[in-house]
Amino acid sequence: MIKKLSLISLFTLLPASYYFAQTTVYAYVKDQDGKPLERAEVDLAQSSNDVTADKIGYFQFVDLQPGHYLITVTRPSFESKIVEFDVTAGEKRKDLGVITLNYSVGSDAGVVVIDDSANDTEDGGSAMQPTVGLLSSGRDAFQNVSAFELGAYWFRPRGVDNRFEDVVFNGVPMSKNDDGRIDFSNWGGLNDVTRYPYENVDNITPSEYTFGNLGGVVYYNTRASSYRKQTSLAYSFTNRSYLHRAMATYSSGLTKDGWAVTLSASRRWGDRAILDGVYQDAYAYFASIEKKFSDRHSINFTGFGSPTYRASNSPNTQEVYDIMGKNYNSYWGWQDGEKRNSRIRNVFEPIFMLTDYLKIGKNSNWTNTVSYQFGSDARSRLDWFHAPDPNPTYYRKLPSYGIYTADEFRENAQIDWTSLYQANYLNLTDMNGKPRGAVYTVVEDVNKDKTFNFASHFDTRLKDNWKLNINFNYQNLKSDNFRRIKDLLGANFANNLNAFDGDVKYNIDDPNVEVREGDRTQYSYELTRNNYALNVSSEIDFTKWNVMASIFSSYSEAQREGDFRSFRFQNNSKGKSAIYDALDAGIKARVTYKINGKNFIVYNGAFFSLAPTLNEIYINPRVVDFVTPGVKNQMINSNELSYILRGQILKLRLSGYYTTINNATEIARYYADVEGTFGTSLSTLVNEALTGANKRYIGAELGFDLKITPTLNAVGVASIGEYKYTNNPDVATFDDINEFRSADFWGKANIKNYKVAGTPQKAFSFGLKYNSPKYWWIGASANYLMDQYLDFSALNKTPYFYIDPATGDPYQAGTTSAGVSYPAATPENVAPLLQQKKFDNQFMLNANAGKSFLIGKYRMGISVSVNNILNNRDYVTGGFEQGRNVNFPDAFVDSQKQYPSFAPKLWYDRGTTFFTNVYLRF
Q1: To which H or E segment does residue 642 belong?
Q2: Of residues 717, 753, 911, 728, the one with CA closest to residue 838
């Protein structure tokens, strides 16, 4: 009996002794100014139960047994920090002291300046923390360098463009329905309130808030109380797309009565940047107001917009650059001693949101947002009626055509606004005094979108290590599209007649063909689209494994309603079209294996469909409701495998990826010239559709950040990719004169193995950065860009290029109407004309420096960044073939010139640019 009692006593006391041997470990997280960092995430490598720092930056782990431990402390906009410590037997409490997180590199070093002029042609209710901050600790070395160093030279990671990226504000997607792209100008200048996303996942990594695409997700939570309580004033000076920027931001923090306010405003302006004739005047505003009713319920209003007035710059042929230099811009000319640009983009599309935050029980959160966006996006250009093309670089005006010498071209290299007014003055009346219409006008292509969104996000913690997210989104778009008269240039009116088609009316139902300033002309139609999307994701975290899966489905309906009845397409131009609907679905997954607290293996995979955009559905919505022949949902399959090292000395990521995009549709719209095109003698706007295109993206990425000394870091990046077309897709065209011409006419575009254009396919960067304990830094990076290719014209790659329509056989040797001989269209003679141009590799050197000061409660900082220090002007940032000579004889003769008349049009890098910034925060 005594033995039994002794045994029972032994087993009863063992748990107690075990309990008293365990330890509580605690610490405080602060920034480099000594302020507490609320919501810093603390991951204990040896456990799946991670914690979050409270409002004073305090966190603790309880019941730790004796042993060696490693924690990773992360917070958006700060550099993550790894802390190692030992727990010994008998320790009841262990104080790790204050853990200081430094501001992340680049957070005050300047901003990425979005310049798309070349295209004018924290309490979010997350109950479970991600694995070791892989998703929330901020961007890794590769991502930082891609954005701030290589991104300045139009480098796109993995070749993925804006079409495949997602930016989300409070659950509301920012992608445009017409082309799927993101218009960053909608919140341009609001850097203070958009600097640090709430979630930033790259590539195909699943997101908690949306399914995402190929290029990752940036999620902004604009809740007023989530912004740091402070006032910030900033001024910047640059020579990029503007000269000056002034910005002011105020955040009240959460008051005792439950209110929080964040306000921000800025202006960017200047007219003497590097490129000739480029100027900008842009304002921006942001307001976020929150009312907290209880610890479980808050409502937040957000409103922001950025009215922008910006002039564009032209692409030019090499001949023009050689004569005029690489700062030349053909879009402007002098008027009354002032520079006037004909290509002006005037955009203002404000958005207003109301978000309801609700905490349900202990582990669930439900966030709902309704939003409304409206406004207009207007892009101007010169138009003419029975008159010569006023473009100074029209091919007949170039020295290579033989009429003007180089000196004469220089004398007439800008738009002659005076002569345009004079032409209209001379054409005010006919011989009998009857008023006549304008010869030259400035018109605007206008897009007025009205977009309603409802977004709902629900998350719950099913278990301590198991999280469930449900997202629903509904979007309704009404898009009014038209051309209007902006400036009659001294004329009484303009004629709403098609000069390229025998002066037929653009709208045969309207007896009045006279249009005046502000009136609609040439085209007018409305597009509507309804989209419903549901996304469910779940994440489960174990000691060694983390698994996340995400699925989605969406349904969309699109319809066109025309306002003008076309002469040629009377039954398909005015009124409502049939509804085009599409159903999408997909799945994503991420599996993370934690080798230990520093080393991880991560796999990401995605397979999903993507419905066509409005621009892809309707081949020429300006005139007809015809659907693009062969348009289908894109099918996307992508896989990546990464090794990640998060050490105290070395942070590294090595990734390999393989992506395919099938059934892609690519639309190009351009004016075809009078001569030698399509076998006709008329110029017209051609809508070219490439359908069923398959592309493959394969490559590897390496990014590392090595702490050589406590203050000196080396950062390196290598991106090696191959992005190419893997089939010969169908080609179709539509124009007012020839109507549809399908693949039966053109055949297939022989573009298999052609490279995807628009980005260097290989890029390398190495930089050094010194961070002084005295809060100043200096850094430099060397960047090497390789394998940049020219975008091609699909029509030039079809059999129509080398097949004589008169015989049905390849062209035989002969002479042109001008008496110039050309050889037979043999494979040996055709191949050089069709070869895709590869641009030279380029080296770029960047540098940045900065200093911050703490003066009492005031924090002041100054920074400067300089790109392309060596002033390399040979780097082509973009370009395209002209779709003009779609026949072998003309193309061959043109290619033999020193400067072909229809040579590719290019944009070059602007050379040395700088961005300086000074701020005061208190």
Answers
A1: strand 634-646
A2: 753
Q: Are 79 and 105 in contact (CB under 8 A)?
A: yes
Beta bridge partners of 251: 230, 262
Between 163 and 656, residue with greater pLDDT: 656
Contact present, 190 and 304 (Cβ < 8 Å): yes
Question: Does residue 4 sit in helix, strand or coil?
Answer: helix
pTM for this prediction: 0.87
Q: What H or E segment, with its residue span, contains residue 485?
A: strand 466-487
C-beta contacts of 418-424 below 8 A and 24+ residues apart: 418/335, 420/382, 420/390, 420/489, 421/489, 421/490, 423/387, 424/488, 424/489, 424/490, 424/491
- Contact at 8 Å (CB) between 190 and 264? yes
Sign for the CA dihedral angle at 269, 274, 276, 278 comes to negative
**What does the block give as tokens for 339?**
């520079």
**Cα torsion 373, 379, 385, 386: sign:** negative
CA distance 622 to 41: 52
Give bridge partners of residue 471 from the DSSP assignment.
457, 535
Angle at 654 between CA 652 and CA 659, to 5 degrees: 145
Query: What are the two backbone dihedrals, phi and then psi, of residue 731, each rounded to the nearest 5 degrees?
Result: -125, 135
pLDDT tens per residue across span 750-766? 999 999 999 999 999 99
Comparing 82 with 606, the larger pLDDT belongs to 606
- Can you give the length of the chain in residues? 922
Calculate mean pLDDT across residues 689-695: 96
Are the C-beta atoms of residues 235 and 245 closer than 8 Å to each other? yes
The C-alpha atoms of residue 121 and residue 479 are separated, in whole angstroms, by: 19
**Is a pLDDT exceeding 90 seen at residue 420?**
yes
The residues pairing with 248 across neighbouring beta strands, listed in sequence order, are 233, 265
Ramachandran bin of 575, using left for φ above 0, alpha for ψ from -120 to 50, beta for the remaining angles: left
50-61 tens-digit pLDDT: 788 887 889 998
* Local structure of residue 117 (DSSP, 8 states): G
